[in-house]
Amino acid sequence: MRSALRSPIGLASVVLLGFLLALAVFAPLLWGDRAAAIDTDALQQGPSSAHLLGTDSLGRDIFYRVLVATRLTIGLALLATVIGVVTGLLLGSAPTVLPRWAGRIVTSAVNIAVAFPGLLLALFFAVIFGTGTVGAVLAIAFAITPSFARLTQTLTASVSGRDFIAAARVCGVGRFRLLLRHVLPNIAEPLVINATLAAGSALTAFAGLSFLGIGVQAPSYDWGRLLGEGLNRIYVTPAPALGPAVAVVLAGLAFNLFGEAAASVAGHRQQSTPGPRPVNEATVDTSEGGLLTVRNLRVAFPGNNGWITPVRGVSFTVHNGEMIGVVGESGSGKSLTALAVSRLVEHPGVVTADRLEFAGKPLRSTSDRELGTSLAMVFQDPMTSFNPTRRIGRQIAEVSEVHQGMSREAAFRKAVDRLRAVRIPEPERKARQYPHEFSGGMRQRVVIAMGLMGEPRLVIADEPTTALDVTVQREVLRLLARVRKERSAAVLLISHDITVVAQTCDRVLVMYAGRIVEELPTDELFTSARHPYTTALLAAVPDMETDRDAPLAVIPGRPPEPGEIEAGCPFAPRCPLADERCRSEEPELTALTDGHRVACWRSEKELMDATAGGAA
Ligand SMILES: Nc1ncnc2c1ncn2[C@@H]1O[C@H](COP(=O)(O)OP(=O)(O)OP(=O)(O)O)[C@@H](O)[C@H]1O
Predict the structure, then answer these.
(1) Residue spans per domain, the chain
(2) Under 8 Å CB-to-CB from 90, ≥6 apart: which residues?
(3) Is 310 in the pocket of ligand 1 (CB under 6 A)?
(4) What DSSP designation does 67 have?
(5) Strand partners, 357
(6) Among 139, 186, 114, which residue's Cα sits nearest to residue 395?
(7) Distance CA 439, CA 343 (A)
(8) 332 in contact with ligand 1, CB cutoff 6 A
(9) Which of 364, 351, 382, 182 is nearest to 279 (CA)?
(10) Measured from the CA of 332, which atom of ligand 1 is nearest?
(11) Where are the alpha helices (DSSP H) in 314-437?
């Protein structure tokens, strides 16, 4: 409001609106009697000092009638707006809470209704509901509804992709609660602005219906009705029509200018707010049965020319208390793998697997409650993992309220305790602050604290330190290591930085083009890595002995897009060792030694040679 008042348009609209609202409240009290007083000696007079806008056919003062009509005109316009906006909001958010088929029907109906001009809809409903005030209010309300429903759908869709919604989902927050707590507060601003603009349109539309005789009926009167009466004698004396006409224009202008000023303030603020960022992840394979068992995991999406499969048969196992790193270039399928094991891949994505088990149970049949408390996710950009409109403490507490049935107070106390556990200074005070009041590193620690509200057995951290400086990065990694040690939780750390993984993890999974190409213990990474892709990744890491005058080592070429993977090893076009077989047949992930697997024809040949040599 303060920002809006600083602009001339905002100031003018607020003054005008204030004036109109004051008139709406006080005019009927002050001048109601004078506006209703019949004077048979002054019928249909023109403007004079006694009657500024003249009198009507019963000698009533038109100036006072215009002032007194402010209440009914604005009141009815606001009532129609409220009904229209609320109905639009209900229809627009219905697809979020209804089953998919029902949501589609609502969306299609709204799309059809949006195609009709508002005034046409108003006239159509006016005929259905009949002439009169109630009919006109409903007609205008339902004329506003489709555009609001559409706006709500669009805004909801834009918020639904944010990480904090995914985080709330993985915590098992129900659809209604998700809508009320997480979606609506984040789309309220544009909705309110558009409702203000709609109020201006409703006001003029209402005046139009009354003017046409299908709105307010005598003895009640609004500006539209007064305008209609004045128009009958506009060629004799224009003032009786001019008065209500000016009032309609001024009020419509006030609402529209206010909406515009609010929109420009909001737009300005949004430009300086960081937008949502994508997340990423990857995976590898291990022996039978662990905390998380993944076998032949595939994630596919419909593309323009058939299905594309960014994750193509990933298998790995995470054991209790293990810390596993997943590395790979952008687009290798790391994030999708992590989303798949967290049940967060959205329609139209399709997840299939020969085996996908968490804590010994098929992931499909693990309850939201169990998954919400035993699996914690830490995304790359913690800002988008939080709902910006809610205090940190309350957001963290929600996990225990939803899953452990704790009271608000107990859950909040636990949240403060967990903030203390991740070494947030002054946790009581910090719990009452909003996400934007935290630094990046602190937010990341808060996300981890949120995961600790349950009893996490697996923490999936997707590039948790990418946006942080090295000091804070080390703190967050230490915290993850501490969580793992103190709670015996397994950690799946996704990172593009192979050195971070080498320093912190027990095993590393290297992903390329939607598959795991090598898996080995991190202490063997620098000595025994076999896949040319892994060695190229390691060679690209500068160390203290790197010649600072020479150009940094890079891997030539780029990884293939999911839709353009051809026969053969996907790394072959970039591999200096590739031969004919590499270009025609894709190698399987094969065990070299216990705990070391690699998908490369060259390694397999060496292995066979070595075996043959040993046998001889
Ligand atoms: N919803 C989607 N629809 C279609 N394709 C998708 C979708 N999500 C991801 N992809 C594709 O899947 C591939 C793998 O994506 P993913 O996010 O898992 O990669 P990543 O290895 O985590 O990369 P980065 O490190 O850049 O995040 C990408 O090529 C991406 O374009």
Answers:
(1) 2-271, 292-382+456-542+553-610
(2) none
(3) yes
(4) H
(5) 293, 362
(6) 186
(7) 29
(8) yes
(9) 382
(10) 21
(11) 334-341, 368-374, 382-385, 392-403, 408-421, 427-431
Task: Find out whether the beta carbon of 380 lies less than 6 Å from any atom of ligand 1.
Answer: no
Tokens of 96: 């979020």
pLDDT in tens, 221-236: 889 889 888 888 888 8
Q: What ipTM did this prediction achieve?
A: 0.95
Indicate the DSSP class of residue 179: I
195-211 residue pLDDT tens = 888 888 888 888 888 88
Nearest Cα neighbor of 324 from 189, 474, 511 is 511
CA angle 48, 52, 58 (to 5 degrees): 85
CA distance 356 to 337: 11
Task: Give the other-Cβ count within 10 Å of 279's Cβ.
Answer: 22
Q: What topology does CATH give the domain 2-271?
A: MetI-like fold (1.10.3720)
Place of tokens 């903030």: 419
Ligand 1 centroid vs 331 CA: distance in angstroms?
5
Report the nearest-CA residue for atom 9 of ligand 1.
336
- CB 333 near ligand 1, within 6 Å: yes
- Which atom of ligand 1 is least distant from the CA of 496? 25
pTM: predicted TM-score of the whole model, two decimal places: 0.59
What CATH class is the domain 292-382+456-542+553-610? alpha beta
